[in-house]
Design goal:
The chain has seven helices and twelve strands. It is an alpha+beta fold and about 300 residues long.
Length: about 300
């Protein structure tokens, strides 16, 4: 026999009270059946009919409760593990646990002294045009010499070998100029590369959310094998996962509006179906259904228990 009192039931959420009373009824029914067996045979027929009627009421009521209420738990709409793309020592952590962040906010900075020095060297090389200017002057001199020898050859007083050598010198000077231009372009690309690496040393939030875990403190090393630094969750929307009977899932489609009720609240809340799994779990016969709650005001908590109200 159940030891629960009416006061206990009064403190229980209405959606769960039906279950509790159904289980209490089952216990009373079981006890009643034991008493029937002990009665004289003449009384068993009438009492047996009463027992059968009560059993049908209990089973029907329990099944109705099972059909009308399904339980799920709210979770963040997104959970992102923010990691470093490169290994290094954490230089500074700029957020705290529970802090709300926006996409693009700086969360931490890795050590960058070596990269900054490399960037200065690369910028110096990229700004230097000495080799390029020298190549241009050399080309001009070689071309002037070639022009003079060409004039001499036309008058018949020049040397063919000297002319050929001057022509080769011009081609060689042009090649040196091209090499200087390519080296300068490579130096400028190196600046962009190091600048990008420096940006990667700054860890930024990839979504609007709340920091729920900080995995590294300043001074700790972040490796390629364990690059995780922060856990950020999106809470402006909550996802509630239900597992419903397959026959009921056939009546649900993406974007459908459904009513769900918090276990500690009598007022139903509107939610939207985001996902109905195409797969039925073989053993349980249940289908996963995800519904989304609007939580832009932040009044709902992740982890809260919800009941799906089946119309």
């Amino acid at each position: 026999m159940s030891n629960r009192t009416e006061a206990d039931y009064a403190q229980t959420p209405p959606s769960l009270t039906r279950w509790n009373r159904a289980f209490a009824l089952r216990e009373r029914l079981s006890k009643f059946c034991e008493n029937v067996v002990q009665k004289p045979v003449s009384h068993r027929g009438m009492l047996g009919g009463v027992v059968l009627m009560l059993a049908l009421v209990f089973i029907t009521g329990a099944n109705r409760i099972e059909r009308r209420t399904l339980e799920g738990f709210a979770e963040p709409y997104q959970t992102i593990e923010i990691a470093a793309s490169e290994a290094g020592i954490v230089q500074e952590v700029l957020v705290e646990l529970g802090q709300a962040v926006k996409k693009g906010d700086v969360l931490a900075v890795l050590d960058d002294e070596v990269l900054k020095a490399s960037l200065e060297i690369a910028q110096l090389k990229a700004q230097s045009t000495a080799a390029l200017d020298a190549s241009k002057v050399e080309i001009e001199l070689r071309q002037q010499k070639l022009a003079a020898l060409t004039q001499l050859n036309r008058s018949g007083s020049g040397s063919r070998e000297e002319y050929a050598r001057a022509k080769a010198d011009v081609e060689f000077a042009n090649a040196k100029l091209k090499g200087a231009e390519e080296t300068l372009a490579a130096d400028r690309l190196e600046v962009k590369k190091i600048d990008a690496q420096l940006r990667q040393r700054t860890i930024r939030a990839s979504l609007n959310g709340v920091v729920t875990d900080i995995h590294r403190d300043p001074g700790e090393f972040v490796s390629g094998a364990e690059p995780k630094l922060f856990t950020v969750v999106r809470l402006d929307r909550l996802r509630v996962k239900f597992y419903v009977p397959a026959e009921h899932s056939l009546r649900l489609n993406k974007s459908d509006r459904v009513k769900i009720q918090a276990a500690n609240d009598d007022k139903p809340t509107a939610a939207e179906v985001e996902f109905v799994s195409p797969v039925t779990h073989a053993e349980s016969g249940l289908v996963r259904v995800d519904v989304i709650l609007d939580n832009r005001d932040g009044r709902l908590r992740s982890g809260q228990r919800w009941l799906l109200i089946q119309e």
